[in-house]
Amino acid sequence: MHDALLAGSQFSGQINFLSPLINGIANGAAYGLLGLGLVLLYKSNRIFNFAQGEFATVGAIVTYVFYAGTGVLPKLPFFLAAVLGLLGSVGIALLTERLVIRPMFNRAKVILVVGTVGVALLLIGVEGLLPYPKTQSLPTISDVLKVQPFIGRIDNVPVLDQDIAKLAMLVVLAVGAFVFFRYTHTGTAILAVSQDATAARVVGISVERISLISWGIAGLLGGVAGILLAVPPTGSVTPGAFTGTTLTVSFAAAVLGGMTSLPGAFVGGLSLGLIEAFASADAEFVPGLNHVHSGQAELAVFLVLLLVLLVRPRGLLGQEA
Amino acid sequence: MAAGTQILAPVAGEHRVGRTYLWVRFVAAAPLVALVLLLPLHSDVYGHVSAYAAIFVMVGLSMNVLTGYTGQISLGHQAFVGLGALTAANVVSTGVRPADGFSFAIGMVCAAAASGAAALLLGAVALRIRGLYLALVTLVFGSVFADAVFTLPSLNGQDAGVPAYRPSFMATEYRFYLFALAMALICAYVDVCVRRTKVGRGLVALRDNELVASAFGVNVLGYKLLGFTISGAMAGLAGGVFAFWEQAFSDKDFTAIAGFNLALTFVVVAVVGGLGNRGGVIAASVFFALVSPLSPFLEWFARQTHWATYYGNNKFYISNVIGAVLLLQTVILNPGGLGQVIRPFARWFGGHKFNLHDSDGGGVGTMEGSSVRA
Amino acid sequence: MSVLEVRDLTIRFGGLTAIDGLNLRVDEWEIVGLMGPNGAGKTTAFNCITGFYKPTRGRVYYQDRDVTKVPPHRKAALGIGRTFQNVGMVKSETALENLLTAQHTRAGYGAPQAIVGLGTVRQREKELTAHAEAILDLLGLADIRDRRIGGLPYGTLKLLELGCALATDPQLLLLDEPSSGMGPEESDELGERLLNLRQELGVTMLLIEHHVPLVTAVCDYVYVLNFGKLLAEGDPDHVRNHPEVVAAYLGGEAPEALAQTETPDDEPPADEAALAKPVKRTSAPRKTAQAKKATKAAPRRRPPAKKEAS
Question: Which domains does chain C have, with CATH numbers?
């Protein structure tokens, strides 16, 4: 039912700024969510987690198979399935920490990063080998709540409820992360470890435990992002769904925010979502550009990333290189 | 310069074993050579897969120069391979007829040159950005370059693919395999030349420690760019061969999730093979070509175990899992990689004494860097 | 003729003045010591001389040529060799490979020739290997030829590093604590070795060293730094008994230390006149260098020019 409405707006023939704006904010929110997880792991382990996109995919897939009752699995209500999906993401993240990160704790960070690349590759493969319908999507919020789809309209542009949900979720989680890092013991301990692991050890913080907790939280954030991303019209539960472009843009978002700043990742995600949306929109408002090539959106993101790294390596909001 | 050499009297030092024993090595190597030359004769499929393995060897050596020697990680190597394929296909521009030998040769050279130039550009970025951020930039570069350039309709044959028919004198799979093998041997030869001269020593020195390298007189910036360029040219050549192996350039091989997988497979090859270890990387390249979705090897294996249908549906993911498991195993438990395992044998074939506990200092550890400060 | 002259060298990191107006001179055929307590700025001075750091102010002259802005690898090619405080070698390589790497600038062929693999390259490689082996023999390290340097003892590493620095074919050798990690006997041996190297190769040396017996044994002239400033200079015996030097090493009050913390942020422009002036020494160097030169065989490469002691 969304599709018809969407199609209607597309054929309205009107050019507008609002459509890419809303698209951009919604996608940007998801990038921001993944970016939050990346920043968290960079803070706690000083590594880039290339498996973060797969944490999202795992969350979405587990949610889907329980929601749809694939094979021998029971058909569960959506929220129960989502909880299982999040547990799946967290579990995978914890397993990654114990089996891959922990044995290499004292090795060079680049090697750990190669390890996370291996995890991503493995998860894509395993997801692919599992028997479940791979082109499906998760239900929309309105389907889940069994209510009429809420579609706000601004200037005849549909605003989908899941876009709003994405944004709301991002705000909630970002505020949650802020509170967590500012006011809880564990949160401040993570920050302490990120600043000086040796000193943190000296004052009695278990660096290993902090690492495990950080991975768990990163898995949770990834799972939430995955469930939000796997809804129609664009999302699906394909193996490796969120490891390609989505992960790339999320990294760019985190880097834009300086890799250590949680609000930075939030803002970075939103800006990149907007850049991408405007670059790939039917940008008739840019003179001479009728149809912008789809690769161009990515190119725009890449150039922004490169520019930030070359000109201002500590990011727009970051405090350090 | 020469005067300096003469100050100190040279000492005789032949540290290899006597020439008399070399024939033993030749005899021992004969089966291997026979395997490489004769097995692809078995059938067209074998020839096809063997040529694919040769292409993988070229990319593996390309990764070896860049990551193994120069110490620069690249998670976007599919862009260079793809650019080579795109360039070769477009330069030769066969249409429906087989390519003529001359333009075919030009196409190969252009493929290497184009990718070398692109790698030089990425290298210029790597002068400023290093470590984890470089890994990220190469990853993004690879996918963005592929998605933005390869999908341009004017370059990919209006989305239908650019045909690249082989020249008539290498029309059979075996003949094309011999050509691919020759190209792989050229790459291996360049790799050997690099490693055994001041170029390789300079690259390894800057990989370990840029300060020490420059104290030894190595132009760190220039050599880093050189490492990228050599690697890019090799990858481009591999791409050129790939276009004619597939007899077409299609952007779909290098974009989106396929490209991402390809890039990661190259990293897997380099790491599992043992960074900086030529023999290991070549062995790993051949192995991963054989377990790739294109190879009939696993399919045959699956048929024996009544998993043929399942394999047929999932071969893409099976090679993913094999690659990932071996990568993790190497990184966590066996940082020297495959090269460490085969090194005693490789050294023995090279005329050295057989020594089971001979570390080459290569492998994943080469990415660690050193702690020397100025 | 001076091989190395440093004029008014100043470098700052943020608000910290690591070196403040350092003047020093190393003449041909000399071994000059650079002493000072930890953090005095000795290694920083080395890094400025070799081009790793860009000095905030001041000039570095090598063989009367201004090389302040020449990058490190070009300086190595010009004949300035150096060692590092904590052993600067390629740790994944063998001793022989390190010595080959160090001969980078004197390889006699370019990168393109190397990649194509010309026959001349192979010939040169044989010569380079022979040279490397000769250095190993010279230092008595022939038995570690094919050992990876990773697991070698520190003293051996320092010695091998000296060999690497020699392999760069230097005319001026900057040695950063060459005797660290060595016992007294090894250190004496090192002193002998340095004197022999000068005798045989005619290498001029500037060394950072804490080990007073070694400095006394080999150095013709010594500069003492403290808190980035020149505290004293002169021949080793003079410097050793200098009251301020003794105070600095024993932790006494150094008046300069308090003054230098309040450096103004805006840098006064470099005094061009001061830069143009050659560095004058306040006291005469020990005559041993000249004496040795007179008694022993002349170096094979460069006959030492007449040196005028100021």
Answer: 1-79+172-178+204-310 (3.40.50.300)
CA atoms within 13 A on the CB side of B191: 30
User: Taking a C-beta distance cutoff of 8 angstroms, is the pair C32, C219 a contact?
Assistant: yes
Question: Are C30 and C220 a contacting pair, CB within 8 Å?
Answer: yes
pLDDT band at C136 (very low <50, low <70, confident <90, very high): very high
Contact A126 B331 (CB under 8 A): no
CA–CA separation, C63 vs B74, rounded Å?
43
Per CB-CB distance under 8 Å, the chain C contacts of B3 are: 300-301
- The DSSP 8-state label assigned to residue A73 in this structure reads S
Among the residue ranges A115-129, A163-177, B88-102, the one predicted with the least confidence is A163-177
The residues, ordered by sequence, that sit 6+ positions from A269 with a Cβ below 8 Å of its Cβ are A28, A29, A30, A31, A32, A33, A34, A35, A170, A249, A250, A253
Asked whether residue A287 is assigned to any structural domain, the reply reads no
Chain C touched by B189 (CB under 8 Å) = yes
Verify whether the Cβ–Cβ distance B215 to C137 is below 8 Å.
no
- Domain range for A162 is 17-139+154-240
* Integer Cα distance of B164 and B180 in angstroms: 15
Query: B30: buried, middle or exposed (CB in 10 Å: 19+, 13-18, 0-12)?
Result: exposed
Of B36, B22, B168, B185, which is closest to residue B101 (Cα–Cα)?
B168
Query: Which residues in chain B are closer than 8 Å to A239, comparing Cβ atoms?
Result: 317
Cα separations in angstroms, B281 against A215, B63, B178, B285, C216? 33, 9, 20, 6, 54
In three-state secondary structure terms, A42 is helix
Residue C260 vs residues C21, C22, C83: alpha-carbon distances, Å: 11, 14, 29
Contact residues, chain B, for A108 at CB < 8 Å: 367-369
How many Cβ contacts (< 8 angstroms) between chains A and B?
Answer: 145
Handedness of CA C82, C85, C89, C90 (dihedral sign): negative
Count the domains in chain A.
Answer: 1
Please enumerate in sequence order all residues whose Cβ is within 8 A of that of A278, keeping only pairs 6 or more positions apart, or say none: A20, A24
Nearest to A115 by CA among B264, C25, B349, B373: B264
**What tens digit of pLDDT does each residue of C145-187 get?**
888 888 788 888 888 999 999 998 899 999 998 888 788 888 8
Report the distance separating Cα B44 and Cα B340, nearest Å.
34
CA–chain centroid gap for B183, Å, is: 11
Gap from B251 CA to chain C (nearest CA, Å): 32
Beta strands C2-13 and C16-27 are antiparallel
Q: For residues A272 and C304, give the distance between their C-alpha atoms in angstroms, rounded to a whole number.
A: 66
Number of domains in chain B: 1
CB atoms within 10 A of CB C38: 7
Domain for residue B7, yes or no?
no
Q: Please give the Cα distance from B308 to B300 (Å, whole number).
A: 8
C-alpha span between C221 and C219 (Å, rounded): 5
Instruction: Answer yes or no: is pLDDT of C266 > 60.
Output: no
Q: What is the DSSP string of B102-149?
A: HHHHHHHHHHHHHHHHHHHHHHHHHTT--THHHHHHHHHHHHHHIIII
Is pLDDT larger for residue A94 or for residue A169? Answer: A94
Structural domain boundaries, residue B58:
44-364
Asked if residue A27 belongs to a domain, the reply is yes
The better pLDDT of the pair B184, B298 is held by B184
- Which residue shows structure tokens 């090697």? A111
Q: CA nearest A258: which of A39, A83, A66, A108? A: A39
Residue B358: CB atoms within 10 Å: 15
Q: What does DSSP assign to residue B165?
A: P
Nearest to A47 among B132, B268, B321 (CB): B132
SS3 category, B50: helix
DSSP assignment of A261-281: -HHHHHHHHHHHHHHHHHHHS
Q: Give the pLDDT mean for C288-302.
A: 44
